[in-house]
């Protein structure tokens, strides 16, 4: 098998190795046992071969008790190899456990860190890049630990030991062997460099080809509509030919290494055998060779090829694993979401017009400040001169001010990119504002712990997301300790109960693939039920009914009207008919509120909202 050369070296090898050793260092006892067993295994292999010399010399000595000493030597030889075999079995089994343990810890730390990262991180990273950390990078590191880590040490010991022992046996022949090994090393270094360069090109070409295929599959309907099949085939063949070309170049060099190493090794073996035989018959410069010495020497010469070749493979495999580890550590080292809030959300009950914190759930909440004072959660949200941009040089919201009193329904209208969803993202504190302030019940949201802030907010997004599990589990995602009765009540309120009961297993129907076996409207209804069961004082509805037909929408609105009673609601909607009864409607354009008022007030102004409502102007 050719060396694994397709993986790039880590950019910062020293730092990556240090972080990797930190994880290994958590298991010092196991590492110490592995080190001892690897050393025993390597030395047993070397010593077992060296024992050929006294056995053969003793057997060839006519004055010795040949068979008696022969059996003693064979028994000793068997014991040495048995110890080596047991040591090899021991360290390979321990390394399997150790590798899986380290991989478990890395996956755990990756996922734990991922759950703390801000949304801005995911805005700049594709899902494929992140998933590659959990698949390709983890697999690469696991392979290097299982197949390279211990074997690399073992082969290093064997190579060092082999060179010491062949020089002890015959320094003159060893100089000749060293020349052959240098030739092997130079060619392997040259071929590795050329193959590695082409393997990197192959990886890039493979990534481009895979991306093209993925795009073609996801957009197959568009391809067929515009009769683009022939052009797609041409593009695929062009990219595939390039992949074939760089793949051939890479494999040509990588697969040439073993034949070259084997051929040079055979030449080396033949030369050593001939010269060794001559030295056994005619000593030169005081160098003599016994029959046992030359036999042992020739075995060492044959054995040297394998660890040298494996050392090259395992070095590249280990470097590839460390390159994967570097990308893993890059994710683990990402800066987590900033949360310096001190205000928390607690359960309270009222007694003698005073709020008292309690442990049991009362469905009455209050903000607990750092001085232990309590402020009842009402749902008063206000923006003061807020500037915000996803990028420093491009603002989305400009000097935006607005307020929503407890129980009010605030609607946002505007074209794509006007900043409607951005406002709701800032209420959740998914992003940090550039300037200005946002208050919640008079408390700056920066002072509220993010988990507690988001626990007080219910949200229904335009893009629904359901998790693998039962329908009941997905609704309970909004309230994990909800009872079955509460689940059913929330589903009825969202008008989802009727379609759920028509499913094969009702509320226990198992859904996968983000609810692929449900219609888009049904998925949206479940998302609304999930928000309803959370029973939060503030609701954010981002195009919540965009995927529901007009008839179903009318039924859902009845349930949502009940849900919104007494709650502060922020609504984003393209269908203006759904926001007519809002307390305030705000028309946004490029992050600026250009009109605000009730439905009747805005119609009377006959401005942008009037044109949108009457159809003279359309949202884009």
Structural write-up:
The structure is a single chain. The protein has a 6-stranded mixed sheet, sandwiched between helices. The chain has about 625 residues and is an alpha/beta fold. Helices cover about 60% and strands about 15% of the residues. The two termini are about 60 Å apart. The longest helix has about 55 residues, at about 230-280. The chain has helices at about 15-25, 30-50, 50-60, 65-115, 120-125, 125-170, 170-220, 220-225, 230-280, 290-330, 420-425, 450-455, 470-475, 485-495, 495-500, 520-535, 550-565, 600-605, 610-615, and strands spanning about 345-350, 355, 365-370, 375, 380-390, 395-405, 410-415, 435-440, 445, 455-460, 470, 510, 540, 570, 585-590, 590-595.
Topology:
Elements: H1 13-24, H2 28-50, H3 52-60, H4 66-114, H5 119-123, H6 127-169, H7 171-218, H8 220-225, H9 229-281, H10 291-332, E1 344-351, E2 354-357, E3 365-368, E4 374-376, E5 381-388, E6 397-404, E7 409-414, H11 420-427, E8 435-440, E9 443-444, H12 450-455, E10 457-460, E11 469-470, H13 471-476, H14 484-493, H15 497-501, E12 510-511, H16 520-534, E13 538-542, H17 550-564, E14 568-572, E15 584-589, E16 592-597, H18 599-605, H19 608-614
Parallel strand pairs: 7-14, 7-15, 10-13, 13-14
Antiparallel strand pairs: 1-2, 1-3, 3-4, 5-6, 5-8, 8-9, 11-12, 15-16
Determine Rg (CA atoms, Å): 36 Å
Number of helices: 19
Strand order of the largest sheet: 10-13-14-7-15-16
Based on DSSP secondary structure assignment, what is the total number of beta strands? 16
Shape summary: elongated
Q: Please, what is the CATH homologous superfamily of the largest domain?
A: ABC transporter type 1, transmembrane domain
Number of domains: 3
The helix fraction, in percent, is: 55-70%
